[in-house]
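Researcher: Please translate sequence to structure tokens.
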Amino acid sequence: MRPITIGAMQALTRQQTILLVVLTLLWGFNWPVMKIGVTDYPPLTFRALSMWIGAPLLGLGLLALKIPLKVPREHWQALFWLAVTNMFVWNSLMVITVKALSSGRAAILGYSMPIFSAVFGALFFGNRLLPRAWAGVAAAALGVLLLLWHELTHLSGRPVGVVLALIAAATWAVGTQQMRRTKIPVSTLALVFWMTVLCTGVLTILSVVFEFSQWKMPSAPAWGSILYNGVLIFVLAQTSWFYLARSLPPVASSISVMMIPILGVFSGAWWLNESLHWQDWAAMLLMVLAIAAVLWPARAPAPAAGP
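Model: Translation complete:
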């Protein structure tokens, strides 16, 4: 396989730009939405209910669009592992993290994924990172550390949530690399549907095993959060993400959405009165620089001299 060089790449198309903006807004605001949903409700059950709403809607949409859903039997195992790295681990661990930590800090930890993606891509997937891309990764890493500044002094009561979030981010990074390289001969939307169906089953089992005694009727705010996740996250945002993950190089598709935790931090501060500090503002600048370092179009090479 020819190595991918990251750091000099084409500009985003109009469609990719629109999807990226929609994705950023939906996922960014979802962090405080999820925090509201799981504050007084078991997190795994919350996630399972959201997926029970999202999976059928996604399936009906694909049927209406007449998109083939059949996956050849020889690719079932590959589909299962895509679901593990892209959905099982992320959805189960991050919803627990949101309950344990503030919504903004959970978003920051979750979106350390691009750092893992860049390093894993260079070490294990044959990517070559140009100096500008490494600078972007370093800026993103520094931004994460700045935003975690105050969390690092309070980990004694919440270390499990932090560890789970980093495991989820690292696993999602592997999934992003695998998603771009998958050879399964079906559309991205069909892959998203089957991964969502598989993950719905897994989350349901986990909910029964670990939270059955906590089951209750969701409150009105919890129902609003469940519907937001089921309709907007698992149908619209999720399909947008996997389209970008397959059509853009992994570091570009992941660092390009680093504004999501920024939006999560500031929407949580506005909506849930979560504290902001100077580190938050400095990190925002670093994240913007990281995005520019990776996505800014490279200068076209000078034409060769004539004979």
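Researcher: Any highlights?
Model: The mean pLDDT is 83.
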